[in-house]
Design goal:
heterotrimer; A mainly alpha (about 325); B alpha/beta (about 400); C mainly alpha (about 290); A: mainly alpha; ABC transporter involved in vitamin B12 uptake, BtuC; 2 domains; two-stranded antiparallel sheet; 2 strands; C: about 290 residues; mainly alpha; 11 helices
């Protein structure tokens, strides 16, 4: 990351933190909270995607985290940050158990299996009423401590958690670990020959990712003060995937942009009461057709195009630069 | 030439403004509505939208709503909640914060209502909603600004089941197929309790809403030897299909629905196989009032009228009456006025009766009279009117 | 409960369910097999088939035997617009196709909501009444679906294995470049495959809408069913879709009748997951480097 990007990033974070002051009592803080929460899911899924697998069960793991966080708080009396931690560990444990089994599968089969897994988890939430309250869910989840019970307070909690998750994922994707992950995705056979424990790397990413999205589940329960299976459906999982695909699956900026875009767009379209879903669908088609690599990819290509223009003709002098960037 | 054109434009504009003056002089009062406008629940969302819009149009056509010494033009802002808790919360936040609205009609469906309450309660926004979960009204602090304006199973089932037992004492066992969601899981235990208390044996099973294929379940149900099928709170589509497939499977007993209601849709889906089907009805479409209402509805929208439309119309009229009586848009005053609307008749459902103290600890449940209808000779006829007990 | 009469009824129900499921899955697996496209708009095209039949048979009174294929053909032709505008950009690109077609599905379904309103309609039955054989009951319309499913399957199999076009399609599915060097016009082949796939989808949708009910959202369940059947049988395999449909139909009939709907769902999903882990390419699919 260049210095310019670092400064820009820092400015954005400061701006985001200042949102409650800029937009007093405004809807902006609500949207910001939802964006922050969605970013946790999108960026954690991104970690899995970078190892070459797309999971459609992500919302199911989010649900496990949410229910565990709620139950440890309300039934076992665990104090606030501890229940979130439990909500992170529980889905991670499950993925530690089944990850080695599922991650052996090639890309498209992994998608299908996780789709079914997501459905089974949703059914479990629905049927296990004694634990989860069934379809009616658990009501009256208390606010996460006095500090975070106001609108702005909770927003900062969500923002902070989101930034923490992004930082963790970023750490995994840069440096040596990042190179290992990229090599696993690009060519498994080659990576294996080079001595990389491919399956273990994938499982590690999977476990970490599901743990992180469990935090989103717990936070959502605190936010709505209510938890029900309707929030953890394949529609939600698909939503996380769409955020990644639209933003760009090859860069961490992808899910960040994608989460923002997918959360804001429906709000912008609300004016068109009847047409909003049609327009949303058409936008999805257009974005996929025009920017198959996502927004990040389109931006990168635009930059390459521009820099080639300004530097003048000689492709070779740009070649090392292009390779290094990727 | 240009100066002439300019003068004409100026004159016309001035006249237009002058002509529009009375309308411009009216201040706008926004009320919000939340409901599912996507996914399987869209029919109910549209019912909220249209029922409320009819009341809004009516009051605006009459010159606006007189609240205290001001007259307001009412504007309805409706937001989709996708029938989920997050959707309800986001919709409520949007209405309260962005549109600065203090009065909301809807949502429908317990998850959405519970999600919305986490926003409406702290901000003291008045909500007239419909969710079947007991705990929506039960907790006193939650109910402070929330009223339920449509009967739930708790309200209409006891009287209906007592009627069934009286009219058809031969019924010894009832079979119920319910949905695997918030409504179904809330309603089935309630109904089971009431049937058992009346001395009727109960068998139940659940399915995923929108399954459409019920033949295996019906085969299973028929093997239990039931003489009555209760479609409880199933959607019109599921209910219609269960009836159709049950009759095709050779089921000869009684079928009715303590819930819904959706008689016209069911007749549409099951066709002649709906003969003899009995149901809860929340509105007598065959009465003169009903026919007038249907006429007004069909002036704007085609197709079958969802039975909840008049109920939401009624709800909105109650809100308007409360605003009128309170003489101000202060939420506390309007809320108290809502509680005091006992006896007010909006002209469609009958006089307002607030109840629910015994069951919920607070009188925020509107007790709406209901009817029992039957499909006879391809037409829906009303059998009896039932008034829920004020408990 | 486990008496002979119920068991026979379960078998009969299973057959009719299987027929519906097979029909619904065929178009889906064809599009994936040949063009590697995950058609998330599958349900929407089925729904359009339903509305087409509603108009041709229900409103215009076209004789039933003509109305059904006519409705399917009409939708397939109209769908060519979608092919040119949307599908064409995403052939051989699985993930992008998933999302773009998700978008197409949204656009089609909610356009239908605006055009036709949400409330359920029914398509007038072509054959009403029941056939009773020795105490077993089978509604005539479901029997008809079984017959149509068999006819469609057989004719499709004949087309794929015995005609030149079918051969061209299979070659294109196996290897696009080699097929082109052999002189096969792949874009025409794709278009024909698309037409056939949507024709079958719309046909399935029309029959589905007639048996159940018609509404803009009716396509959700056919999509889910197609997904599960095709996963089970193998993505891209026609015999796989047939086998998957039969297995799913009978399993559902048996489990739901004797153990209830939730057990049925759990077990079906569980079995499919287990199968996918052990044999990810489905029962009759072709493994192409599935395991790591």
């Amino acid at each position: 990351m260049t210095l310019v990007m670092r400064i820009a990033g820092a400015c954005l974070v400061v701006l985001a933190a200042a949102l409650p002051f800029i937009d007093k009592d405004g809807f902006g803080v609500t949207v910001g909270t939802i964006i922050a929460l969605n970013m946790i899911g999108a960026t954690s899924l991104h970690l899995i995607i970078r190892t070459g697998h797309v999971s459609l069960a992500h919302a199911g793991f989010m649900g496990i985290g949410g229910y565990v966080a709620t139950l440890t708080l309300m039934r076992l009396g665990w104090p606030f940050p501890l229940n979130l931690l439990a909500g992170a560990i529980a889905p991670a444990c499950l993925s530690l158990l089944i990850g080695p089994l599922l991650l052996r599968l090639q890309g498209k089969y992994f998608v299908l299996v996780t789709f079914m897994l997501g459905e089974i988890l949703r059914l479990a939430f629905l049927q296990w009423s004694s634990l989860t309250g069934g379809a009616n869910g658990i009501f009256g989840v208390p606010a996460p401590g006095p500090m975070f019970s106001s609108q702005a307070g909770f927003y900062w909690l969500a923002l902070g958690s989101s930034l923490l998750c992004i930082a963790i994922v970023a750490r995994m994707l840069t440096g040596n670990m990042g190179r290992i992950i990229d090599s696993v995705r690009d060519s498994e056979r080659l990576a294996q020959c080079a001595g990389i424990p491919v399956l273990q790397v994938k499982v590690a990413a999977f476990v970490l990712a599901t743990g992180l999205v469990g935090i989103q589940g717990g936070l959502t329960a605190h936010y709505l003060q209510y938890i029900d299976p309707g929030a953890f459906t394949s529609v939600q999982s698909l939503s996380f995937v769409v955020m990644n695909v639209i933003g760009g699956m090859r860069s961490l900026f992808g899910p960040i942009i994608g989460a923002t875009f997918m959360t804001i767009l429906p709000e912008l379209l609300r004016g068109y009461v009847e047409m909003q879903h049609v327009i949303f669908g058409l936008i999805l088609i257009a974005v996929m057709a025009a920017m198959p690599g996502g927004v990040v990819d389109a931006v990168n290509r635009a930059r390459q195009f521009l820099s080639r223009r300004t530097r003048g003709g000689n492709l070779d002098s740009n070649l090392p630069r292009v390779v290094a960037r990727q | 030439m240009t100066i002439q054109r300019l003068c004409v434009t100026a004159l016309v504009t001035a006249l237009a403004c002058f002509g529009a003056w009375p309308v411009l002089a009216l201040e706008e009062l926004k009320i919000g509505a939340i409901g599912p406008l996507s996914g399987g629940g869209t029919a109910w969302g549209l019912a909220i939208n249209r029922g409320t819009q009819m009341a809004v149009d009516e009051v605006n056509a009459a010159g606006g709503l007189k609240v205290g010494d001001k007259t307001y033009k009412i504007q309805l802002v409706m937001v989709d909640d996708a029938y989920t808790a997050t959707g309800g919360r986001t919709a409520a936040d949007r209405l309260i914060k962005l549109e600065k609205i203090r009065f909301i009609i809807g949502p429908i469906g317990s998850p959405s209502v519970l999600g919305a309450l986490s926003a409406t309660d702290p901000s003291k926004t008045l909500v007239l909603s419909n969710g079947f979960a007991m705990n929506i009204l039960k907790n006193e602090s939650r109910a402070a600004y929330n009223f339920r304006t449509i009967d739930t199973t708790n309200e209409f089932a006891p009287a209906m089941i007592e009627w069934m037992h009286r009219k058809h004492p031969q019924v010894k066992k009832v079979g119920m197929l319910g949905t695997n969601d918030a409504t179904g899981q809330a309603v089935l235990p309630m109904l089971t309790e009431i049937y058992k208390a009346t001395g009727i044996d109960v068998w139940t099973d659940s399915f995923d809403r929108g399954s459409q294929e019920f033949v295996p379940l019906i085969t299973r149900l028929m093997a239990q030897g039931v003489d009555l099928i209760d479609l409880n709170s199933n959607s019109p589509s599921d209910a219609g299909l269960i009836i159709k497939q049950a009759r095709q499977a050779g089921y000869k007993g009684l079928i009715w629905q303590v819930g819904g209601p959706a008689v016209p849709e069911i007749m549409e889906i099951a066709g002649p196989l709906a003969e003899g089907f009995m149901s809860l009805e929340m509105f007598d479409f065959s009465s003169p009032i009903g026919e007038k209402f249907a006429e007004k509805y069909h002036a704007q929208w085609p197709g079958v009228i969802n039975a909840q439309v008049p109920l939401w119309y009624n709800t909105t009229k109650i809100l308007f009456e409360a605003l009128r009586r309170a003489g101000s848009t202060d939420v506390e005053k309007v809320r108290d006025a809502v509680k005091a609307t006992e006896g007010y008749d909006a002209g469609v459902i009958g006089p307002v009766v607030w109840g629910g103290q015994a069951k919920y600890g607070v009188n925020h449940q509107l007790l709406v009279p209901v009817w029992i209808a039957e499909v006879k000779g391809g037409k829906e006829i009303i059998l009896e009117k039932i008034t829920p007990e004020k408990r | 409960m486990f008496n002979a009469a119920t068991i026979w009824q379960v078998v009969v129900n299973g057959a009719s369910l299987s027929a519906i499921y097979v029909l619904v899955a065929l178009g889906f697996t064809l599009l994936f097999g040949i063009m590697r496209v995950v058609n998330f708009a599958h349900g929407a095209f089925a729904m359009l088939g339903g509305y087409a039949l509603y108009y041709f048979w229900g409103r215009f009174g076209v004789p039933y035997v003509i109305a059904v294929p006519l409705a399917a053909a009409f939708v397939a032709l109209v769908a060519l617009i979608a092919e040119g505008l949307v599908f064409r950009w995403f052939y051989q690109r699985m993930f992008e196709s998933m999302i773009a077609l998700l978008g197409l599905n949204l656009a089609l379904v909610y356009s239908a909501v605006m055009i036709w309103d949400v409330s359920e309609r029914s398509i007038p039955p072509a054959f009403s009444g029941l056939i009773e054989v020795g105490g077993l009951l089978l509604p005539k319309d479901r029997l008809m679906v079984i017959c149509i499913a068999v006819v469609v399957l057989v004719s499709f199999w004949v087309f794929m294995t015995r005609t030149r076009q079918g051969l061209a399609m299979r070659a294109t599915a196996q290897d696009l470049e080699i097929a082109e060097t052999q002189g096969i016009n792949t874009s025409v082949t794709y278009r024909i495959a698309f037409l056939i796939a949507i024709f079958m989808t719309a046909l399935a949708g029309a029959l589905y809408a007639q048996i159940y009910s018609l509404s803009p959202f009716m396509g959700d369940r056919p999509l889910m069913v197609a997904f599960v059947v095709v996963i089970l049988g193998g993505m891209g395999s026609i015999p796989g879709a047939a086998l998957g449909g039969v297995i799913l139909g009978f399993t559902e009939s048996f489990l739901a009748t004797f153990y209830g709907a939730s057990v049925s769902s759990f077990v079906s999903f569980g079995v499919v997951i287990a199968l996918l882990i052990v044999r990810p390419w489905g029962l009759l699919g072709t493994p192409d480097g599935a395991r790591a």
